[in-house]
Amino acid sequence: MARSHRRRVAIIGGGPSGIVSAKYLLAQGFEPTIFESSDDIGGQWNHRSPNSGIWPTMRTNTSRVLTQFSDMGYDVGVPVYPKNQEVHSYLHRYAEAFGLMRRARLLTKVDLVESTDRGYRVTSRQSGGPPLTEQYDFVVAATGRYNKPYIPSVPGLGTFRGSAVARHSFAYKDPEKYRGLRVLVAGCAISALEIASDLAMLGAARVVSCYRRQRYVLPKLVGGVPSDHIFFTRWAVLASEVFSPEVMQASLRSAILQANGSPEQYGAMKPDEDIAKAGITLSQYFLPLVAEKRIHVKPWIRRIQDERVQFEDETEESFDAILFSTGFNLHLPYLSEELRNGLRVDDYSLDLYRYTFSPEFERLAFMGMHDQTGPLFPVLELQARWIAYTWSGLVDPVTKEEMREAIRRFQTVRESKMKTTVNQMAVGFSRELGTEPDLSAHPELTRAAMFGPLAAVSFRISGPDSLPQAVGRFVQEAQEFGSVPTPELSSTQEEQLRALSQALERRVASK
Hints:
about 500 residues, alpha/beta, 2 domains, five-stranded parallel β-sheet, 15 helices, 22 strands, about 30% helix
């Protein structure tokens, strides 16, 4: 795409998605404007934002190495799992370093985005001011999928009369409020288990965790190594492309049981042996606290009457508070009716090629709208690069026919609300960009690249926008926690690569 005056980009949202999008678009010669409705950039990591669901004591559930972009690390001394305030500070430092703060319009909400024959018309409103309508050539929707809390229908919920009410965990801001109270935490995803643990350790009188199905639970650290370094690897993605789902699920279940055992061993419920049905979540303290009976586990809620909650096992208890940590609905209220209909937006997803581009609306892109397990930062940076490089002509755009066919195939995933994972997303985006590490040029990186952490800097070793220092930084990050202590492959890893190579050869031969 030739440089011209038609390169103004409206970026809706000033969280990690919006910030990293602006960085790469600016580097490609675009003129980005970040619209942020709160008083500061940071998105979820700005605790003052009404769109933030973080609580004061919250730490990341993703390791420091996988909660950063490729151009900048954290300050010295930041722990393996940073505090939320440290992530916010990091994002500020990143934005300042790349000249993004002057691109941000704070306290400015976007009310409407409309498609026009010249691009997109964006109507925004600064706090206390009149609406302002402007024309942009491109739009990036970067408001995320975690700002419209979802509470499922529960018989009698409206009758609950506990002293601290029933609410979504998005509003969990003051743990002290629950000191000495009986609290029910509904849900089995990461936030539910972390909040239940938080309450149990900060003085709640009784904490009960209830959910529909028991997930397998990973700790944050396994043998001193962050679990996201171990379980979200390139090897796992490549292996899943040649081995059956049954083989991959059995291997994953075996690895989880070896790392942390099964929940019923701690006194929680027994998960389905099919790990795809059970699901996986992460919490360092939840299962040990269950074992100590500082957290009690119940099946899902059957009905509520005043302070009394009856569970599906027919037991009943009285509670002062209920916190529903039950997820979020996709929320894109600023899209015009034409855009919403054309993209088939619903509470869970929308029709996009690799969650990013639409064949029906050119020069419109989306960031971070997918439902993912695992760290987001490496994926968001790759997605931002893909958008910037596609619009600038650095990489070839995907044809509309290819997009439509992929969207058609995606409908099964969409209807079943299947989560994706960080390694699936990262490898997929890197293939679009041509940024997978070239191991023929760097054979010494084989072990780190295949079995080490999916650090963002590993995608700056090869392809467009590669960094001269990327190899050294990647090796350093891979070795920091002993994830990959030496460049040599272990006997197990050699066996895994050999099996993968043989499976690939058989697949090629069968064709």
